[in-house]
Amino acid sequence: MESIKDRINNLARAMGKPDVQESEYVDYKTLRKQYEQQANDEIRQLQMRSKKDRIAAIHGRSDLNPNWTFANLVEDSDDVIEAVSIAQSFIAAHDDPSWRESGSHMMLFYGDYGRGKSHIAGAMAHQLIEQYEISVLYRQLSTLLEMRYFSYDYSAKDNIGQKFREAHQELLEVDLLILDEVCVNETVLKKNTQSWLGNLLRQRLVNKKNCILITNHNLAELEHAIGRYCFESIREYDTYRVRFSGPSRRKGIAADEAEPSSASSSRYQPNQVR
Asked: Measuring CA to CA, which residue among 240, 236, 221, 203 is closest to residue 109?
């Protein structure tokens, strides 16, 4: 009776191919294991490509500055070192499902201009996207308020009302909302704006969505600026307050970098550097 090897060789001869040598013969179990390993490798590669695509899509919608990373951050003062430590703890907490489901969390970054508040918030967001595929939106509050204001122009032809409603829905649904420049150049928000912002934060609270608020005000000024109703919305969160008090990291404009002005020119030239 012919063996399996003989049958294979007979078939190979009939097809004009050389005999299968002893060293080339692979039994069924070994062959099946090889194919399963190959299939698993292909699935892992497909999953990795799919994850990269998802992460790229989240980054694309986030509107984050790509330079806001921990690698680009200079930890040159105690407040920045402490802020980075708190930020890393906040990121690491996402490993715990019970923490993520326990409620809504708010990080409140406050301090003067140029202290690194936006940079650290952005670095946190980048890492959360990469590690946990957390959806993120970075928005300046003033930009949202302008969009909200123009949405009431019913004679507008650019469909601004629908655009704002879609933007507002996105603000409610995103996993992490970063609101920057909160009440910048504002002593106090209008009452209807306070109510809108307070309702936004309360709805996110109910939906267990996290926030980072960035402001140049101290906490007392912030409470006055956004109003008690809105500030009480912040209190409802599990809040981490981070104060930035170190030196500004923004470069000034040196005198020799300014464009020279002509003394004989009578044309108006604003914002002259002297």
From this structure: 240
Return the amino acid letter for 228. Answer: R
Tell the CATH topology of 63-244. Rossmann fold (3.40.50)
Cβ within 8 Å of residue 170, ≥6 positions away: 137
d(CA 64, CA 121): 10
Model confidence pLDDT, tens digit, residues 218-272: 999 999 999 999 999 999 999 999 999 877 777 765 555 545 544 444 443 344 3
Query: What is the spatial order of strands in the sheet that 238-244 belongs to?
Result: 136-140, 176-180, 210-215, 105-111, 238-244
Q: Which residues contact 227 (CB under 8 A, 6 or more apart)?
A: 188, 189, 191, 194, 198
For residues 81 and 97, what is the distance between their CA atoms, to the nearest angstrom? 27
Buried b / exposed e over 108-146, threshold 16 CB at 10 Å, is bbbbeebbbbbbbbbbbbbbbbeeeebbbbbbbbeebbe
Alpha helices in the chain (DSSP H): 4-14, 28-62, 78-92, 97-101, 117-132, 141-150, 160-173, 191-206, 219-226, 228-236
- The pair of three-digit structure tokens given for residue 99, joined into one six-digit string: 């923490």
Q: Give CA–CA dist 96/56, Å, rounded.
A: 24
Q: What is the three-class DSSP state of 179?
A: strand
Query: Which H or E run includes 214?
Result: strand 210-215
27, 20 contact by CB (below 8 A): no
**Alpha-carbon distance 15 to 234, whole Å?**
78
- pTM over 0.85, yes/no: no
